[in-house]
Amino acid sequence: MAFFRGLTAVSRLRSRMANEATTLGGVRWLQMQSASDLDLRSQLQELIPEQQDRLKKLKSEHGKVQLGNINVDMVLGGMRGMIGMLWETSLLDPEEGIRFRGLSIPECQKVLPTAVEGGEPLPEGLLWLLLTGKVPTKEQVNSLSKELLARSSVPAHVYKAIDALPVTAHPMTQFTTGVMALQVESEFQKAYDKGLSKAKFWEPTYEDVLNLIARLPPVASYVYRRIFKDGKSIEADNALDYAANFSHMLGFDDPKMLELMRLYITIHTDHEGGNVSAHTGHLVGSALSDPYLSFAAALNGLAGPLHGLANQEVLLWIKSVIEETGSGVTTDQLKEYVWKTLKSGKVVPGFGHGVLRKTDPRYSCQREFALKHLPEDPLFQLVSKLYEVVPPILTELGKVKNPWPNVDAHSGVLLNHFGLSEARYYTVLFGVSRSMGIGSQLIWDRALGLPLERPKSVTMEWLENYCKNKAA
Ligand code: NMX
Ligand code: MLT
After folding, report:
1. For 344-407, where are the alpha helices, taking DSSP H only?
2. CATH fit for domain 310-418, picks 3.40.390.30, 1.10.230.10, 3.30.420.40, 3.40.50.300
3. For the whole model, what pTM was predicted?
4. Which residue's C-alpha comes closest to atom 6 of ligand 2?
């Protein structure tokens, strides 16, 4: 049953989309009715039995329907294209890009509540959407901001654990150490040890996920200030929303940077379930490891250069171009540098994708942000030039399935523009954002009672024999 909000600035789009609820993944529009509407947990409580029934029906009515054939290439090729898991919060289309609970990025930018009139979405709104499938009101988002703030206090031992590492340790190592130290407070682990019934697993998972999301900005900003700002931490500003407060604690208060951080977190939250970090979080969680353990594992996947670390690699690569050619790099010099990178056996960071076959809409919306707020920035202009130069070269290589830029090709130059120039830190920002998608799905994993993940592996000998027998 769909409820309609009263007529607001975005009401035309909202009502059009509400009418198209089935084509847009069943996103619902919620009318503010009572104080409990402001409570995310009670919203979930209502939704869970409905979704449990839906899953039961899917299993009993369609459990034996075939979803395609697995071939040897897929087994040897990193399971590309193999449908292998349930992930409710978002879905990725190779041509169109990501939809969060049925909504594309431009649609989210239109309908999710903002801090600034006509500005970027508040990530708390996207978290609400990911968890419930419903577009929240501004009041609901404000209430969630306050709830996250109330949950954000970090025990002293977490900072001590980080301090035990050399300051030269990679920011992702320091950040993940902080997450592991937060695990000491896991409500799920405590409840499980006491003997919790399966039907209630989602409840302490919810507590852990909300606490984790709330505590990541203070931990992440501590890491940043420890490494790059002589350890001088900045107190939270309780009047600010999640993203703005994070930016403030990092040391960046320019209103445009606050808007960038809102957009940045929103678009990095989730990218369906098969990417390395999301899949890892889901896999580890399936063993009933608590959300801290699951998310720390996910972060270790994110820290790889073919995944989240690519945002660091992009800015370092761009800076190396300028170092070698000077600031007024020509198109020919750029082409030469791209070829030099490829010939040295390296990838061009920020280009290509395991699923996408077009320009990543997360790249496009960052480009729009740059065109609006920093069109003259020389690094942005270089990124624009790369958009023209790199895809034809990757196409010419003949083996790259997607020559177009992904999310990481753009984020660094935006952050750099506002003074956050330390590229080695960038993946931590990705990690903070990704907690919202991975955490939301972990709650649903437990609510739906999803089982231990345990696919079958085989040896080369097994494959050879199987293929021989098949051919005979
Ligand atoms: N530069 C050079 N070679 C590339 C690139 C690239 N940007 N992208 C793909 N290739 C190569 C790839 O290494 C492979 O070569 P080989 O057969 O010699 O092993 C070949 O093209 C086919 O790869 P694809 O099937 O097109 O891509 P795949 O799905 O295997 O990998 C990525 C996807 C994202 C790992 C790959 O495109 C890549 O390495 N890109 C650069 C790193 C990057 O930007 N990663 C960030 C992804 C987004 N994120 O945030 O996680
Ligand atoms: C992501 O956001 O996780 C990346 O684009 C990688 C992916 O989707 O495989």
Report:
1. 361-373, 378-397
2. 1.10.230.10
3. 0.94
4. 275
